[in-house]
Amino acid sequence: MASLADSFLADLDELSDNEGYPEEDNAEAAGMEEDGDDDMPDLESLNYDDLDSVSKLQKTQRYNDIMQKVEDALQKGTDFSNQGSILEEDPEYQLIVDCNALSVDIENEIIIIHNFIRDKYRLKFPELESLVHHPIDYARVVKKIGNEMDLTLVDLEGLLPSAIIMVVSVTASTTSGKPLSEENLEKTVEACDRALTLDAAKKKVLDFVESRMGYIAPNLSAIVGSAVASKLMGTAGGLGALAKMPACNVQLLGAKRKNLAGFSTATSQFRVGYLEHTEVFQSTPPALRTRACRLIAAKSTLAARIDSIRGDPTGKAGRNLLEEIRKKIEKWQEPPPAKLPKPLPVPDSEPKKKRGGRRLRKMKERYAQTDMMKLANRMQFGIPEESSLGDGLGEGYGMLGQAGSGKLRVSAGQSKLAAKVAKKFKEKSYGSSGATSGLTSSLAFTPVQGIELSNPQAQGNPLGGGTQSTYFSETGTFSKIRRTQ
């Protein structure tokens, strides 16, 4: 064991000698750990009991300045005196960009406060967070209920739907929670008031942005509406950034990834962002919403580019694009045109230019319909036809076999062309000298008699014809052998 320990120590010494700057690496690691320790209180501040350490947005100078400018602008009204100036240099446009960024910060702050309220009120009513999901509705219900254990004494009408109110009341009667202490209840109610204040500030910011969208982006607002236009601008980072963005990315602005919990994505709806809240999209049938969303995104991008260069301050181009979108969607919903009956072509009574001939007659006769097929294709009135499988099943035979013979076979007569060809061949064979080819002759030279007459056909087939030509000779006879004793 001692030798093994010595070898480990030797390996450690070699590693320490080969490393370049281990002290600096350790120092960097220590620095990273110190930075991580500095950041940890910010992450863990969400669980602190102090509300001021959780929510810090309302005490910032940026929040107060923007809200003061928004209130002054809403009281002053809309000023269109500097419409011809450059849009990026307009102070009101800069205020709109700041408001869009502030609205995102307010949403994040509301979520943080919502987590604080849930952690505090979970001791009193742990099932409420699974019944009421919206942060603002949850804050209103918590503020309304307070420390009351019997929810029949609490009027929640107007805060939640009637079905949800009934479920909350039934669940509260069987909950395992206990009343909160005075200190925790006071902190919870204060957090609810702060969340409601932030929500009111957010609505005021959005109202200001929507009221100015008719001046900042009139064409875009004409297509998607002021509220959706302000959200698109805020997410994209301004009107100029929105104008430079392709239509396929505009379609996904504001889209949230859906958690399907392991189920298939085949039945899930396609991803749509803020364009889902437009009037045109909502009025489109579900089967056409994918195409409609792409069309709205494309036209919205064109409208944003027009607004970025102040091309049409009146918004007429946006209204024309909106009308074009509606016409296309209506065109998609039209049924296909009915098929008109196609009339038969005019019969051609003029003589054909194509000549007839022997080859054409042979082709017609080769593919002509036989008498057997003519009978099979006809049926006699009042008499059932015979079929291959019986009882009218299988292939029908028509009038075959119904002439009284009881047979299905029909004697096929020889065609005129075949008879003519056979007759012509017979005349040719009789009129010839019997030679089968031009190289054969009836004269033969033999060493015994010299020149003699011979039969070329017999030489061509020395064994003769017939079925017995391969076994017996046609000229030979059977010989009788006498038995010898």
From TrEMBL:
Residues 216-334 form the Nop domain. SMART domains: NOSIC. Residues 468-478 have a biased composition (Polar residues). Residues 1-43, 329-363, 453-485 are annotated as: Disordered. Residues 334-348 have a biased composition (Pro residues). One of its GO terms (cellular component) is spliceosomal complex. It comes from the Eukaryota. Its main location: nucleus. Transmembrane segments: none annotated. One of its GO terms (biological process) is mRNA processing. It is found in: Nucleus. Keywords: mRNA processing, mRNA splicing, Nucleus, Ribonucleoprotein, RNA-binding, Spliceosome. Residues 352-363 have a biased composition (Basic residues). Residues 11-43 have a biased composition (Acidic residues). GO terms for molecular function: RNA binding. Belongs to the PRP31 family. This is Nop domain-containing protein. It comes from Urochloa decumbens.
